[in-house]
Amino acid sequence: MAVHTVIIAGSSSVNTPLTAPAPSLPLVPLIEIAAPAFDVEIEIAYATAQNITEQPVYGRAACYLHPDAAEKLQRAIDLAKPLGFRLKIFDAYRPTEAQWKLWNARPDPEFLADPRRGSPHSRGVAVDLNLLDADGRELDMGTGFDAFTPLSHHGVTDGISPAAQRNRLLLIGLMTSAGWDFYRNEWWHYQLFDSRRYPLIDDGKAAPPMM
Ligand SMILES: [Zn+2]
User: Fold this and answer.
1) Is residue 2 situated within a structural domain?
2) CATH number, domain with residue 36
3) 63 in helix, strand or coil?
4) Ligand 1 center to residue 120 CA distance, Å?
5) With pLDDT > 90 as the criterion, what percentage of the chain qualifies?
6) Is the pTM of this model over 0.85?
7) Span 64-82, mean pLDDT?
8) How many whole angstroms separate alpha carbon 172 and alpha carbon 187?
9) For labeling, which of 10, 51, 138, 143 is most exposed (least CB within 10 Å)?
């Protein structure tokens, strides 16, 4: 028993504190991601009832990112365009208040960041997205956005068609080439490296309120 206690106490999931470390970067105004400045399609899922809470989490559909993330988003747009693809964004900056609503509905650390540690979305440095083909259709990724299933993981071959695997690899190739880090459990989620350097942002603190 003592041996098991030592192993459990040494695991990162137990020892990681339930608080976010102090950010090293200051709070700065977020940039609104919208056409025509950014050639993207935006469909903010949490402004609709089509999410795990089964009601709108945001009072207003809006898309904001930290300037560092906005710059890398533009790079992804520029890389996708000559290949005939556009980006479709489901979520970007997510107020900490919204992260609590999602967490309270589904406290599953495999798919959601504990709001006490903070989501990179709540720092304005994460984006959930798919690609659109030349006809404006979303690529087949094998699951929908926010599908809370192991089939959403990168590298899954059982149960995901080769075409969908190819599409996921296209998205991860575009996004990582543009400077984004990926999350192995969600094909749609990308974030900046060292995201914890950026401060968590409450609703209305760095952009017009969304809640
Ligand atoms: Zn995400």
Assistant:
1) no
2) 3.30.1380.10
3) coil
4) 8
5) 83
6) yes
7) 98
8) 8
9) 10
Whole-number Å distance, alpha carbon 211 to ligand 1 midpoint, is 18
Q: How far is CA 130 from CA 88, 200, 207, in A?
A: 5, 25, 24
32, 43, 71, 186: the catalytic one is 186
Q: How far is the CA of 121 from the centre of ligand 1 (A)?
A: 6
Question: Does residue 99 form part of some domain?
Answer: no
Task: Give pLDDT tens digits for 120-171.
Answer: 999 999 999 999 999 999 999 999 998 989 999 999 999 999 999 999 999 9
**Averaged pLDDT score across all residues of the chain:** 91
Tally of domains in the chain: 1
Domain that holds residue 71: 32-88+125-197
**DSSP letter for each residue of 38-66:** S-EEE--GGGSS-STTSS-S-SS---EE-
Q: Is 186 a catalytic residue?
A: yes
Flag whether 115 is in a domain: no
Residue 112 alpha carbon to ligand 1 centre in Å? 8
